[in-house]
Amino acid sequence: MMRKTLIELQQISKRYDQPKQASVSIMEDINIKIKEGELVSILGPSGSGKSTLLRIIAGLVPPSQGTVLYNGQEIAGTNPGVGMVFQSFALFPWLTVLENVKLGLENKPLREADKMRKALSVIDMIGLDGFEGAYPKELSGGMRQRVGIGRALVMEPDILLMDEPFSALDVLTAENLKRDLLELWTERKIPTQCIIMVTHSIEEAVYMSDRAIVLSRDPARVISDIPIPMAHWRDKQDLQFTSLVDRIYSILTQREGKTTGQAEKKDNTIEKIPPVPAGALTGFIELIDDLGQQVDLYKLADQLSLKLEDFLPIVEAVEMLQFATVVHGDIGLTEAGRRFANASVLFRKEIFKDQVLEHVPIMEKIIWILQSKSNNKMEGAFFVEIFEKHFGAEEAALQLDIVIDWGRYAELIAYDKKAKVLYLENEAAAAVE
Amino acid sequence: MQLNYFHTGNERRPFGWADILVISLLLSILYAAAKLGSGMQVPLDPDELSSLSLDPKWLPYYAGRSLLRMFIAFAASLLFTFVYGRIAAYNRTAEKFMIPAIDILQSVPVLGFLSATVLAFMALFPGSLLGVEFASIFAIFTSQVWNMTLSYYHSLKTIPRELNEAAAMNQLGGWHRFTKLEAPFSMIGLVWNSMMSFGGGWFFLAASESISVLNQDLHLPGIGTYMALAADDGNIKALIYAILTMVVLIVLVDQFFWRPIVAWSQKFKNEQTEAGEVPTSWVLNLLKRASFVHYLNRKLRRGVHDGFLRLSATSSQVKLPQVPPGIKKIFKWLILLTAAALILRYLYSGILEIAQLSWSELIHVVYLGLLTGLRVVVSTLLAVVWTLPIGVFIGTNPRLSRMVQPVVQVLSSFPANMAFPIFTILYLKFGIPMEIGAIPLMMLGTQWYVLFNVIAGAMAIPSDLKEVTVTLKLTRWQTWKKLILPAVFPFLVTGCITASGGAWNASIVSEIVSWKDQDLQAAGLGTFIAEATTNGNWPEIIWGILVMCLLVVIVNRLVWSRLYALAENKYHMD
């Protein structure tokens, strides 16, 4: 039997238009179909617009191009068949648990008594019996998210959207909530037809969902759509489970510029620097060196208990500087990386300086600009303006910060925070004398 | 654990003493409002005007009338706040001129306009005191409203994105958005600003109840008028009665209105953890104990909810035809054009009026404005000089600040202009010239804002920083220079901005005072406007007000906004 398509995304793209500048494209040509009975995870590096995609499905954010179909109908405004669970719970602090849940029914043509009955039965279902009169501030994080889930479920939506629903919870609480939710879902205790979940945890995606959609970054595209054909409940030690996790890891850690090889990538685009301070890179390289030749990324992330969002940029940065390479989900140090790991503090700076100058075109350009100025100085705002053309206003300032951090560590550039001026390091030395 | 008595009280409670108390209170309020309100429409005839008496037995009635005025003005302010704030927060085009407009209106001296509004409202209700009544209410309204509107607007702008999204996902309509999200989210700030505005409103009440326009003395029955008559009469006993009544009134309003609201509004604090110390109110506790309050609350909620449901069920079948966007646009432009035409017309006639004055007169008014400006500066500086050490002393002493704060609150609410006669007597006795004497009168009402803020600033100094100064063995002077002054600075600037704005306003009543038939006046813009108003000299009124507005706005832009930016950027503690 063919299952009905509930949600269909057709050629969705999203740009942020900025006054006086070229618009920044964050999402391009996304086509996804989601069928009845599916639990789908959306994965991607930080800044890949996963949450924006979810909000486009919800009708909270309009796409710049393309259409969202719900039951074959194009949606206008908020999607009528959708309930949403938020990362920060988004509970109304001045309403009790009961009132928060009832909020989902507020605009339904039901009598007060009926609303009360419905809300109470949902509260019962999500395991908050006895807490009806409590305020969110009296509850633990896990219970708050239960209220958030209850508020979404009370509307009896066809589609349940979840935006990183477990990432604000501690590990044990999250595990418990995941199981309870899966139970409601797999045993059909809720009338929900499909669940779409944004997550940063690959393990979570493989544990819960029937399909994992992987997005790339800058702009977001669907780079992979992986079916997870395993029966619930899944064993995390199972070989099929770990190999799926490994596979998604390796997809996520492939460097976009090299693997995608898009024709439209012009020469004048500058590559973004992953926002990782030099100090963190040093520690990471030392760790890999200690662990030996090749290290499994998935296990490494687990060992560092880092979220994917924080972990991937570090891997990207060491790859960019060619201190390490990633092959099939395993990371290993390069020659330069090994030298760096075993060098003294001063010598490390030398190696770092060489790598940065060779592999980070932004840094090279900045040095060149500073050198060509007679006083070897330049306002930070000048660089921010250049970056804005490539990355957009918000990202530009961040990029400058990280460039300054790397440049300072490499003793290439110095920065006067008060005057917001960059200058060459030898100039800084002269200024002190 | 905190219980929400208003929503979940399903258990039956016996009818108790609390119910009887609350019911009798309600009845008395209803009766008083009806009685006092019926007095509003008194025809305007001289006999009626002179019938106001200094007999203290009339004081409760007068106080009631004044209170009614205050609450009507407050209700109007609240309504205005919700409408204006909402439009400004959600309509980007409107926001661009609505918020700067408030910024300017906020710095405009309200009392300067009093005479103009009195005349306008009198024309609306010819032959009745209702016009004067409205003018008084309007004056109080304009003194309260901007502050509240700005607070509401800022709250709406800072509603967290996810709460907005949750509201959208739950398909909340406009009304539910307001009751469940917007009003609760802005409640804390709005209550605080309302309380401050209401306290400041007493000053304008006292100033606007009895006023002379076009050589005609107009008196509304009220406590401000009683005070004015006492001063005219030179009746010191009546003077003291009035002051005592005023204090009692302020304390009563605080206990029966603001304290319960503040205590109740605590549940709207947008925090995820429980706070330590929570404001309480015995009146609110009483209300919570009364079981019929619960009963009424529950019935009302249910009734209103289901009633609305029935209403929307019948009305939803009728769909209004969509207005085509072209016509909408034309309509929008039409409104804009009409507004522009009206503004231009009045601007033109205003300029024509001013044109009747000679150059030397025009320049003389500017000179008077500078004189008054000097007094405003001196009064603000003097306020800083005495409040800084005392405010810091109080603020760094938690026990003391708990005790002092309610007192300061009453003092700041007390309308300074009601204390003017006392000062006038002293000035007359010791022969102090008004040129200097006006300055303490200005300070009387405005210094409290500085004190409030300094106390708040001193209380906010982190204790670990204080400990650092001790361990570093800094001298007292070094501690002040390195820690206290920088920490208090942002608060001090905020207080000074409010204080100097208040001083400009006060200048209209504090540069010219009288006791019996002796008048004391200082050369200044305040005196100028007050006299022009009495004589009904329109060109002088318009030019005087214009000069005052310009001076205030210029000083704000050149001095205060810069200091404020400095305070925000450099001395802000986070």
Automatic annotation (TrEMBL), chain B:
Keywords, in A-Z order: Membrane, Transmembrane, Transmembrane helix, Transport
Q: What is its membrane topology? A: Multi-pass membrane protein
Give the chief site where it resides. Answer: membrane
Q: Which Pfam families match?
A: BPD_transp_1
Residues covered by the ABC transmembrane type-1 domain: 63-258, 369-559
TM annotation in the entry? 15-34, 67-87, 108-128, 134-153, 185-205, 238-258, 330-348, 368-395, 407-430, 436-462, 483-504, 541-560
State the InterPro entries in the record: MetI-like, MetI-like_sf
Which family does the UniProt entry place this protein in?
Belongs to the binding-protein-dependent transport system permease family.
Provide the protein name.
ABC transporter permease subunit
Q: What species does this protein belong to? A: Paenibacillus tritici
